[in-house]
Write a structure and sequence with these properties.
Chain B: Its EC number is 7.6.2.9. The complex is a heterodimer of chains A (about 525) and B (about 250). Chain A is α/β, with parallel strands linked by helices. Chain A has 3 domains: about 1-215, MetI-like fold; about 255-360 and about 460-520, D-Maltodextrin-Binding Protein, domain 2 (3-Layer(aba) Sandwich), CATH 3.40.190.10; about 360-450, D-Maltodextrin-Binding Protein, domain 2, CATH 3.40.190. Chain A has helices at about 1-10, 15-45, 50-65, 65-80, 80-105, 110-120, 125-155, 165-175, 180-205, 220-250, 265-280, 295-305, 315-325, 335-345, 365-370, 375-385, 400-410, 425-430, 470-475, 480-485, 495-505, 510-520; strands at about 255-260, 285-290, 310-315, 350-355, 360-365, 390, 415-420, 435-440, 450, 465-470. The chains are: A alpha/beta (about 525), B alpha/beta (about 250).
């Protein structure tokens, strides 16, 4: 595993370096912002003590919001991507900054402050020359804490479409590539350690009067050294911020770029790579893919409405229930209504039906199927109270998910577990769960260790895959429509399952699989 | 003109009266010690002189102008201030501590600051290898000397000292007392020196101010205080001292 991680790191070093730089930019910008805002807030409440309680309570409260939820709350305000990540990370990092600044300032012996005032210091001089330097050790340890935390948390930011090493982790998880997940995690840990060591040096400097060393390499030299460290740190942050801003600008400028979003699914990674290759091959447009947006449909739809994305692959049944919030179960006779509603309400077009139906299924472990003689959902419902069921978290909320199964089949499992889409199969084979949801295009559908049960009451609706495209994008780039239609009807359930399997079980790159399919069909 | 004048000064903290109708004047160049039990208002009296505390009634005049009229920052920069336990700035070296007030005054003129530091390190007999030490590395007596040097570095003409020697051992205290007397003789800085030690008050002061419950009960030369105690409180305060002298 370690070996394959290193060979992956070497093989894809440009990609990893790119992700590492993005990670550094996102976290350093957040750290710098939080340091400035947190310091100012901490100073303000140390002066105006009556504000301390409410301000501390507020930052404390924000700190307890689960990160995924906060990223989600911010989507309507900041859209999806780096701005969202920087905003959320900055907000989280405020607590350690504000609290340590406040604690550091209020813990100073009042006699020292009175001495400073009694000698004729202005309030500003007292703050800059006496209070802040004395609070510096506590503030520095806050910065150190906050920096490590932010670097780690920035990994999660990739789940909602930001860049950084989390992209590698999430991609590794969703495509069953553990070496990639490990590589991303190790790089994040290494980055956190390096930053912590650097800040540790700065902290030591801030504490030097508390633990004076007998050696006489003293104040003046150290002061100069400190200034150099501060200058280097400031320029690193500025350069990182600048590059980051420039990259964002370069990315967003001009209408020549098509932004494609994908859900965190292997299948969508492959489809997006096909679209990118086709579009860039046939037109002058360039394609920017934001892979694996956590929260799937909800968050991508919001991003589409804001214009963050131009198109993404979506499934008819999902759009019907999740976006249009329709109660009745979808079948393809309702497609015209669905298409019309999207046009009227959002200005989005449904074009290019890929040809496969990624509907849900339920799979049980082979030994479980044999022990209870399971063939259909009705069979499973009869023994469900004795079994454990695993599904991705949103399955339990969706009308076309667990609540529907309960209503239709009376299927009530003894235990249910939340798990990420791509961890389910491993959990099933390991015996942690007995039954899982799966989809008809899963690469693992053909695995011998599982049995797919029959939906005997036709509970599951149809989920045919299409591209959803913003109308104004199609108007701005009319050439796009013909390119997209090249894939119309091109991919069957079996094709999709085979390609998913190639990525998830053979460890091939989504892009390789996509390009191989395109050339196999003579599309490029 | 007297250096400091208190004119019917009343100061309250909540319901407690810290100073009750105090009127007196301190001559320029004199050394006045202030003694009294804890909470009698000694420290408040001192802080009125450098505008850390403002009077509720009456006024405090420094060089003839009221503290309520003056810019408190400017005023404080012309008055040296030494506090109990010295309270050096722990994050600054000895040199930086002494240079603190001069550096507030002459920001541009570093040389003037440096020469002031040199002068006071010499005057207080501090070994020059202490310059780059932090307060945590100093002995109590050294810290106290640095505290005095810091208060005097900007050459103020008034020095306020609030029990500066209360935290050092008897031997160090004796030498510090000699030191401050010598410096007073050399510079002629008007000194207000708060203490709770009657020996110190009588030895150092050209005049002794005895305070009791917010009032000045006697303000006279040490000889007068010993010879003619103004109240039972002063009597008790000096009784032991007198028996020592009588022996």
């Amino acid at each position: 595993m370690i070996e394959s991680m290193f060979s992956l790191l070497i093989e894809k070093r440009d990609w990893f370096i790119d992700l590492l730089l993005q990670h550094i930019a996102i976290s350093l910008v957040s750290i710098a912002l939080a340091a400035i805002i947190g310091l100012a807030l901490g100073i303000a409440i140390a002066q105006w003590r009556r504000g301390a309680k409410p301000v501390l309570a507020l930052v404390n409260f924000i700190y307890t919001i689960p990160s995924i939820a906060l990223f989600g709350f911010l989507i309507p305000l900041t859209g999806i991507g780096d701005l969202n990540a920087v905003t959320a990370l900055t907000i989280y990092a405020l607590l350690p900054m504000v609290r340590n600044t406040y604690t550091g300032l209020t813990a100073i012996d009042p006699a020292i402050i009175e001495a400073a005032r009694g000698m004729g210091s202005t309030d500003r001089q007292t703050l800059y020359r006496i209070e802040l330097p004395l609070a510096a050790p506590v503030i520095m340890s806050g910065i150190r804490n906050m920096a490590t935390m932010t670097i780690a948390l920035a990994g999660i930011a990739s789940f909602i479409g930001a860049g950084g090493l989390g992209v590698a982790i999430y991609r590794g998880i969703t495509t069953n590539n553990l070496a990639m997940t490990l590589a991303g995690s190790v790089l994040i840990a290494a980055l956190a350690i390096v930053v912590d060591l650097l800040l540790g040096l700065a902290e030591k400097r801030a504490r030097r009067h508390l633990e004076p060393s007998p050696s006489t390499v003293r104040a003046k030299k150290l002061r100069r050294g400190g200034r150099a460290v501060a200058a280097v740190a400031a320029s690193v942050v500025l350069i990182a911020g600048g590059t980051f801003a420039y990259a964002k600008f370069a990315e967003d400028n001009g209408g020549g770029t098509i932004d494609i979003a994908t859900k965190p699914m292997t299948e969508q990674y492959i489809l997006s790579e096909m679209l990118k290759t086709l579009i860039e091959h046939d037109t002058d447009l360039s394609v920017q893919i934001t892979q694996g947006i956590g929260g799937g449909t909800y968050n991508i739809h919001t991003g589409m409405e804001r214009g963050d994305f131009d198109l993404y692959p979506e499934y008819t049944g999902t759009a019907w229930t999740t976006v249009l919030k329709r109660e009745e179960f979808y079948d393809e006779s309702m497609f015209d209504e669905l298409r019309q509603a999207y046009e009227d309400r959002f200005g989005f077009e449904w074009i290019c039906e890929y040809g496969f139906n990624n509907t849900f299924g339920i799979a049980v472990r082979k030994d479980v199927a044999e022990r209870y003689g399971l063939h259909t959902y009705s069979d499973l419902a009869a023994v469900a109270p004795e079994l454990t069921f695993g599904a991705q978290p949103d399955f339990y909320d969706r009308e076309d998910g667990y609540p529907g199964l309960q209503a239709t089949y009376g299927m009530d499992f003894g235990t249910t577990a939340d798990m990420d889409i791509s961890l389910k199969f491993q959990a099933l084979f390991d015996g942690q769960v007995d039954a899982i949801t799966m989809s008809t295009t899963d690469g693992q559908v053909t695995d011998e260790r599982l049995v797919v049960l029959e939906d005997d009451r036709h509970f599951y609706p149809s989920y045919r895959c299409y591209d959803i495209v913003r109308r104004d994008t199609l108007e701005a780039h009319p050439e796009l429509q013909d390119v997209l239609l090249k894939l119309d009807g091109a991919i069957s359930d079996a094709d999709m399952a085979r390609m998913n399997g190639a990525v998830e079980m053979e460890g091939r790159e989504p892009k390789d699989v996509a390009d191989a399919f395109l050339s196999e069909r003579g599309l490029v | 003109m007297p250096a400091i004048e208190f004119d019917h000064v009343v100061k309250r903290f909540g319901d407690a009266v810290a100073l009750n109708d105090v009127s007196l004047s301190v001559d320029s160049g004199s050394f006045v010690t202030i003694i009294g039990s804890s909470g009698c208002g000694k420290t408040t009296l001192l802080k009125l002189a450098n505008a850390l505390v403002m009077p509720d009634e009456g006024q405090v005049l420094v060089h003839g102008s009221a503290t309520t009229e003056a810019d408190p920052i400017e005023l404080r920069r012309t008055i040296g201030y030494v506090i109990q336990g010295s309270v050096l700035f722990p994050h600054l070296t000895v040199e930086q501590n002494i240079a603190y007030v001069p550096s507030l005054l002459n920001r541009r003129d570093q040389r003037r600051t440096e020469s002031a530091v040199d002068k006071w390190i010499g005057l207080l007999g501090l070994p020059s290898n202490l310059r780059d030490r932090y307060p945590a590395e100093l002995s109590g007596g050294q810290a106290q000397r640095v505290g005095i040097a810091r208060a005097l570095a900007a050459s103020p003409d008034i020095l306020l000292a609030d029990e500066p020697f209360s935290a050092v051992d008897a031997i160090t205290r004796a030498s510090l007392q000699d030191e401050i007397k010598r410096i007073h003789n050399q510079t002629g800085v008007t000194t207000l020196f708060v203490t709770h030690d009657i020996d110190e008050a009588l030895d150092l002061g050209e005049k002794v101010m005895v305070m009791e419950a917010g009032r000045v009960v006697q303000y006279a030369s040490p000889h007068d205080v010993l010879a003619n105690p103004a109240s039972g409180f002063v009597e008790r305060l000096v009784a032991r001292k007198r028996s020592v002298y009588a022996r």
